[in-house]
Design goal:
The structure holds two protein chains of two kinds. By secondary structure, chain A is mainly α. Chain A contains 15 helices and two strands. The chains are: A mainly alpha, B mainly alpha.
Amino acid sequence: MAQSPGRISLAPARGTLSVFEIALLVLCLVLVVAPIPQNLQDIIVLTFLWAGLATAWNIAGGYTGLISFGHAAFFGIGAYTSTILLVRMNVTPWVGIWCGGLLAAFCGAILAVICVRLRGPFFILSTLAAAEVIRIAALNWSSLTGGPEGLAISPAADPVNMVFASKHAYLALMLGYLLLSYALTKLIDGSRYGYYLFAARDDEDAASAAGVNPLAVRTVALMLSAALTGIGGSLFAQYFLYLDPTFVISPEVSFQFALLPAVGGLGTAIGPVLGSFLITPMSELLRSYLGSKVAGLHLAIYSALLIVVVLYFPSGIAGALSGLSRRKGGKS
Amino acid sequence: MTTLGQLVLSGIFIGAIYALMSIGLTLIFGVLRIVNFAHGEFLMLGMYGAWAMTRLLGLNPYLAMIAVVPAMFLFGGLVYRLIVSPALDKPHLVVVFATMGLSIFMQNAALMLMSADLFDIPPVFGHAVTIGPLYFKAELVVGFVITVICTLVLQWALKSTYLGKAIRATVQDREAAMLMGIPVPRIFLITFAGGSALVGLAACVMMPLFSVFPTVGLNFVLIAFVIVVLGGMGSISGALIGGICVGIVQSLSSYYVAPAFGQMFFFILFLLVMIFRPNGLLGQKGAADIGIAD
């Protein structure tokens, strides 16, 4: 029954921007240009990137109800495609990231053929298994991926290779990616296709009776989500300049994609962004203050918080916020 | 021929042990219709328990069961009360994320307390078991025997005791069971705690064969998921068959192809089953649908 969380939007109408969103955008733009210490800029870069990735995951997980724990596979496919094109064939990442996105979308279509009919835990476990297949393949196909040693991108700053000396450039790049993901989500929010998605997610039988093909709309959503995740993977590679399968395609990365929207508010456009803006800086700061003292302490705190949040705020930060504004008599 | 026999038989032995580790997961899924993503960490906890009993108290790891199994039963009950039960009446995803949070928490708590080092225990038996021309680790054969005994006892208990019948009734139809006066919330608690106790048992059987470290659960939980789905969620004999399939696939492919690809083959096997027989190999009808129904 109450399988999917209610779509609680901070925006009064679908497909339009609220004052809150515009304020957030202005804040982000200020963060891009403001002279901030390097280590804080690192955290903001990651916050934007994870917010974009969480938004991409949310198109499948929140909007469509396809809870994937295998998105690290798309992330890895995007990252490896652009990096292999750059390192082995000298193709600029400005082209490579789109190739990565396309290949990830294609793999998303394959995954959809396998899994899109499955429900609940069966879908979750299949995506987990599919990502493991990709990870083991990447680990063992050394001639292409460099195997466990991984691949490194030359750190010499060169805008053609999408390697920058200034953090401001990376901030702008990641914010651009976040805006792309967010714009697509808002577009879905206000479109006919969006209504098809919600209908198929909330009541499959009723949706098919009304002439919506649930399998087709889900497949498209999964492909879109995979493509955006692939692009995010390429950007990740361009920022860290190093890739190895054990980290990039790990289940931990897949879980992270899902956790941010779950904390922020599933199936809302703003939820994953709020999730990342809260969680990413917190986990980075916990890591830098506690990680060096006691290994594991920062993740233990983080996961304990996560349990409390999902148990007591199942509709996430976005849900809690809009509940608050409703109580004040703001919106209906 | 001898090689093939050796591979198939050791595949069956190790597969049965994998099955023992998955029975708790499949019971919990069948009764509560939730996937416990922290199942692997329960195994990890049990293995640390067995390690501590063996290394610190000098017990035989098989005797450590006497302490580890009841401790895991209590631990499972506690987790049910604190995390699972409050999540049951909320959207399906809540329990997924809550158990996943628990899994990350337990991994990192173990990392803090025990460090990332590998711990193991000395061999229990100094010699191998020979069957004709074939040689097996004695711990492997003992594990197999324990699994077979456990499966038979469990099957009997589910068929013949009042509690077993109540559990099976809850699997078949929760509402009808409640109407017949079965205390369903209590059955949930007992199943979750009992499933955890079974993982503790599996941990004692596995401790002589594998090392324990904070993320050991991740490797095994993926295997357990594969087995549970192959065998049909909620079925004990299914888990045994699924486990043996996975064991044989792993043993053959790591000898004939490459050890690294052994895992890949059973994930592919898993995906193939999902495509062609989403209800599992034995397939009770509609199993693939119940997961999301409520």
